[in-house]
Amino acid sequence: MDFGLPVRTPVLWASGSFEGGTGKCSLVAGHICMKHLLTTGCLGPAQRGCREFLEGVNESYLGVLSLFRGSRGGGGAQPLGSSLPLEAHVSARTPHRVTVQYFEFVFSHQWTEVPADRVGYPGPATRELLLGTRSIWKASALNEMQSSQKVTLTLSGLSLEEPRTLSGGTRDQQLLQESTEALLRVPCPTASTLNPALADIYTEHAHQVVVAKYAPSGFYIASGDVSGKLRIWDTTQKEHLLKYEYQPFAGKIKDIAWTEDSKRIAVVGEGREKFGAVFLWDSGSSVGEITGHNKVINSVDIKQSRPYRLATGSDDNCAAFFEGPPFKFKFTIGDHNRFVNCVRFSPDGNRFATASADGQIYIYDGKTGEKVCALGGDKAHDGGIYAISWSPDSTHLLSASGDKTSKIWDVNVNSVVNTFTMGSTVLDQQLGCLWQKDHLLSISLSGYINYLDKNNPSKPLRVIKGHSKSIQCLTVHKNGGKSYIYSGSHDGHINYWDSETGENDSFAGKGHTNQVSRMTVDESGQLVSCSMDDTVRYTNLTLRDYSGQGVVKMDMQPKCVAVGPGGYAVVVCIGQIVLLKDQKKCFSIDNPGYEPEVVAVHPSGDMVAVGGTDGNVRLYSILGTTLKDEGRVLEAKGPVTDVAYSHDGAFLAVCDASKVVTVFSVADGYSENNVFYGHHAKIVCLAWSPDNEHFASGGMDMMVYVWTLSDPETRVKIQGDSCFCLSSLERLSPGPEGPICASGLLFCGPLPDPQRDGGRACS
């Protein structure tokens, strides 16, 4: 059977062995691309149960594990039985982008030269298996063999031990099954502290997520929300399939901890009848009780070595110590005089630390719970401490405080090694921290993630900035030869993003104080934004600084703004349409007889289209410093949600709440050109491609469709982010494959080719 698997450059491989029975068992492990397994149909009987797993994985890879038992008596090498359902847990640091390589494994038997890309299924007395880039091994008939041993798999420094039962047989069907390799699952490394652009989003919680923790195996994440739901979901697949869901108590989950074998979970928070629970991850069965507190429990952690210990911290100013499993309350620790915000065991399990709103950190013995010391004497910080994190070698501790500093402590000598002062404003308070291998991170109240530099405490290595509230609008503008995306959020912040690298920052100074509803860039390079703070702002995109100038106060709350040549801008407010000229109000239409929602200005600057909740678009002409109603009404299929002129001014696209996009031909007197259907919910935004042949629409169905103007049946579908409905769209370059960005979601990437993806409607 020709598998058609290419032999390429060598990759990381694993080896291990055990002694027992009449011989020595050895194993080898390699990697094989999941997509190749699917396309060539290489799954044998023992792997068919994994097909669902395979089909769900996108860019992750699978390893192939083959086990052989070498005989000392000259009987050849025997494959181990299929009763080895080996599913080795490999750390996320395992290389994931590897190609196929077969491994040469020498036994005391005859070798035969055959093509490297072929393998034969075994007969009754002969089994052929490809083991090298040039050779096939032929083994003699199998003998019945039973053995029970502990298999140790070593991969990239990671050792995993699982008891397994090994068996063999002589029948043809048994041979076929036994020769089938076990699948070795490798987590897809979708997130990275080295490159924060490698990130993923889990969107299946119905309520705000408070905490998420990796299982020590790396294959699952447990996340908890404000409703008390705990979801355990897969990290190896792009879809992040749900494994289990529990409701340990009714109320906000504030912290989660796993045992080192990834089999038990402790959850604490704001329950009504109880404040914590500890249970088996795969059944929900209780493995103890979390008691000893009379108020909300803020934090929990479990010692990552046996004998297990569990510690909690609560709003009752106490920590509690537990032994188990089953976990039972041992005693209360009352050293703090304010809320205990965080408890953490050291990785080696020898110590645990508690941090409190009283600014103190105490160190305790990890096995007995006896107090060892208080870091820094009376106070570790001048403000409350919200988080602590141990170094991998268990000798140092990182702390984050409301005094706007983070500190590194040498626990062995009870002294401060570094103090990181993050700023002087309220938003610079430090709420969280993480010591991840060589990376030290802290989180500010602003939502920024700081990469701390031990060699230069005065300045972070980098700061990851972004929006902490939903993005409501965006626009794109070229500045200095680069395309930048400008995004405005629900809390009034405006950020700018490099469309190539994803690097971003916020505007300096004090800007909008409420939701940014719409933004655009005028011909002078000014960012024009309108906000629910009843202002329209003009901001210089070279300085990216709110100077306090260029602020136009509106009489009514603005909803949308559009700009035209000659310094004109038209603002749609609640019950009002306002014309601006050179950053000043010059004309307004009060109570126009309908509720205006959106506006677009023709590229020539002489015509304005205003869409209303009554399902109509009305046309106005700009005459000097006035707006004239042209008496033209264009009918949409429902309440108008967005309007957009093509860049050449030849077409006007109108989308509505009835899930329809209608395109009007400007040259033909705004006659209806075409109607586009496809969305399954309200359409909220439009954007034209610079080629004027394609446009995109985004809706509350979390979909972006890219349409071809001349053919309503040809469209490309892009699945949006299910966190938010789409609220704004912009095109970065021409053509159906040009990058597009959307907000609500903020998405950038090349689009599929309609012809390549079937040409017709994708739904």
TrEMBL record:
Protein name: WD repeat-containing protein 1
Coiled coil feature spans: none
UniProt keywords, alphabetically: Actin-binding, Cytoplasm, Cytoskeleton, Repeat, WD repeat
Top-level division of the source organism's lineage: Eukaryota
Major location (coarse): cytoplasm
PANTHER family to which the protein is assigned, alphabetical: WD REPEAT-CONTAINING PROTEIN 1 (PTHR19856:SF0), WD-REPEATCONTAINING PROTEIN WDR1 (PTHR19856)
WD repeat coordinates: 202-243, 333-374, 378-419, 464-507, 676-717
GO CC entries: cytoskeleton
Compartmental location: Cytoplasm, Cytoskeleton
Taxonomic lineage: Eukaryota, Metazoa, Chordata, Craniata, Vertebrata
InterPro entries with a match to the protein in the record: N2O_reductase_N, Quinoprot_gluc/sorb_DH_b-prop, WD40/YVTN_repeat-like_dom_sf, WD40_repeat_CS, WD40_rpt
Family statement drawn from the similarity comment of this UniProt entry: Belongs to the WD repeat AIP1 family.
SUPFAM superfamilies reported in the protein's UniProt record: Nitrous oxide reductase, N-terminal domain, Soluble quinoprotein glucose dehydrogenase
GO MF term set: actin binding
